[in-house]
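Structural prep section.
Before we set up the soaks we want a predicted structure of the protein with adenosine monophosphate in place, mainly to decide which crystallisation condition to try first. Input record follows.
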Amino acid sequence: MKILSVNAGSSSLKFQLLQMPEEFEIASGLVERIGNKNAEFKINFNGSSSKQSDLVVLDHSVAVDLVIKGLLEHKIISSLDEIQGVGHRVVQGGETFKESVVIDDDVVLKIAALNDLAPLHNPANIIGINAFRKAIPNVLHVAVFDTTFHQTMPEVNFLYGTPYEWYEKHGVRKYGFHGTSHQYVSEEAQKRLGKEESKIIVAHIGNGASVTAVLNGKSIDTSMGLTPLEGFPMGTRSGNVDPSIFQLMQQKEGYSLEKTLNELNKKSGYLGISGVSHDSRDIVSAANEGNHRAKLALDIQAKRIVDYIASYYVLLGGLDALVFTAGIGENAKEVRSLVCKRLEVLGIIIDDEKNNSRGDKEIQHKDSKVKIWVIPTNEEVMIARDVLRLQNSN
Ligand code: AMP
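Run finished without errors. Recording the tokens verbatim:
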């Protein structure tokens, strides 16, 4: 059975066509710069790839047409009937969605009702859902939320120290994100540990990044909060700051609330500290060439990642495995090393030679009390698994 996993962002649309239940990737691709006249469409299949540039893609429905045309033209499918289910990544499910759901008009309205909690993400997710439901109307569409895996957090961990009425009236609390990734990777780690009772910390470090404490397969705390801005410095996001910054920047620079928020989301993190780039590859090479601020960007991030890992070590009452995943966690040995060197006091010891090798691997030193794994994440497979599960139960 062929299932399409869709991840619609504000100006991009990523997809993967999977053969299920084998979890085999048939094709994947990306439409970038939606809303512009210089959009790009890339599709990968059968070990080859094709790219079109300078396309006029003014909205998501044009992007969806491109994806469907691409699948048909490259004979990846012979008709749309071959696609038997579509899974959509939705960033914010609030407390409304405690698990993945089959999408109908009512579900779309409920997702839209959460727009205030994820103004940068949910509206784009809905546009993607609507465009695909229109293009492929006769199959099951399923919404898979970034937040559901974290719905097991106890209130002592998800509530802020803000007035309780803010939570009651407006849902002000930590929700956590990257849930499909944290779940996929922690389930894999749990399998490798070979025991139900397990203490795992997942460090999902990509352009967006979060750390999660997983006790016996359930998320009990995570670094992201009401929005994906909370936590430690990322590619362009600041992570935690003192909210008084808003007042100071208004007084000193005349910044509006929106302007400061935008700077914290898009001009901070690696990019803001280093002034070099948001991309870890550029940061690592600049740091290696002696650029002080690039080195600082890596050190500040590592320090703050470790703040979370150490606190979750205590919260979990020990640790069986620390797992690195996502673009940086999987590929940037320098970042893994900077993090782990600061954790030696907890008996979490990295083996430098093993850390240098590529791919899925075990990288702890023989004297380490804790397993350290690199496990590639696969959010698309997680989404397709949920489509399959709901199809079977419908
Ligand atoms: P993600 O958001 O998970 O796609 O991760 C994006 C980040 O992963 C970017 O900062 C990339 O620089 C980083 N990344 C991807 N591939 C590599 C690589 N081979 N080496 C170092 N960093 C990488």
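Observations: Residues 206-207, 235, 279-281, 326-328, 331-332 surround adenosine monophosphate (CB under 6 Å).
Flagged for discussion at group meeting.
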